């Protein structure tokens, strides 16, 4: 039923494309603030409000999976003052949005290694994941202390630390190894990305969902994240429907 709702909402009659999983690299908060001679922290606050706007719009239009790049493994290189502000903002956002998740049947997920976060924030994330785990209307995933290379490395470690026989592992085909790794990724219970959007004008993936986006359609917007609105997202999705997704095959 959930898949049918998504199909009805986001399938163009003339397109074969289905949009189940939308991923967004939310870039431009700091530059947005600096352009207005404000602190970078103020840009992050406005950006957090836009997370709410975009999530509610995606919920309304039947997108099943929305994954947002919130804090990367490389973001620890930023000034401590900014990192501390980001952690407090994340904690505030999750507390305020808790009722929104419960009210709207939204499952909250986090991908990445959250063991690096301070304990109250880590427990808040885990508790929210647990309390919303049965919700089915939409899954909103925040990538937190996330890096795709780190995720793939952790998945490989899970494989070799499992009960699998190492001698048996050596006899498996590359396709079987690929399947084992996929089953141990943070996103093992989610579909691959259909459309990946990056705001802020940069045209790179920045170590985000490299495995899951191997056949995604990409769109790079010049709009800074705090100014990115649902009208532009609708235009991007309309463009997505016009693209030909052959997944390596020849068009029939």
TrEMBL record:
Q: Name one GO molecular function term.
A: ditrans,polycis-undecaprenyl-diphosphate synthase [(2E,6E)-farnesyl-diphosphate specific] activity
InterPro entries of this UniProt entry? Answer: UPP_synth-like, UPP_synth-like_CS, UPP_synth-like_sf
Q: Where does this protein hold substrate? A: 28-32, 40, 44, 72-74, 76, 78, 198, 204-206
Query: Per its Swiss-Prot or TrEMBL entry, what cofactor is needed?
Result: Mg(2+)
For this chain's record, the cofactor binding note is: Binds 2 magnesium ions per subunit.
Supply the Pfam families for this chain: Prenyltransf
Assembly, in brief, is: Homodimer.
Similarity-based family: Belongs to the UPP synthase family.
Q: What name does this protein carry?
A: Isoprenyl transferase
